[in-house]
Design brief:
alpha+beta, two-stranded antiparallel sheet, 2 helices, 20% helix, globular
Length: 56
């Protein structure tokens, strides 16, 4: 997972990028929370950002 938006090229503002990202930390944590709360039979082997699955 990535805490940004691959298609839109937007990323989360953090100390690591001197707060230059457009997304808040809360927005960046969206995919983390989604993946952490998946049911045991949820999807695996995918790459996702806050907007959903990304082809790779």
């Amino acid at each position: 997972m990535t805490p940004g938006e691959v298609a839109g090229g937007r990323f989360t503002a953090t100390d690591m990028n001197v707060r230059t990202g457009e997304l808040t930390v809360t927005e960046g944590s969206d995919p983390i929370i989604e993946l952490a709360t998946l049911a045991p039979d949820g999807p695996t082997g995918t790459f996702v950002d806050r907007l959903g699955p990304i082809a790779w």
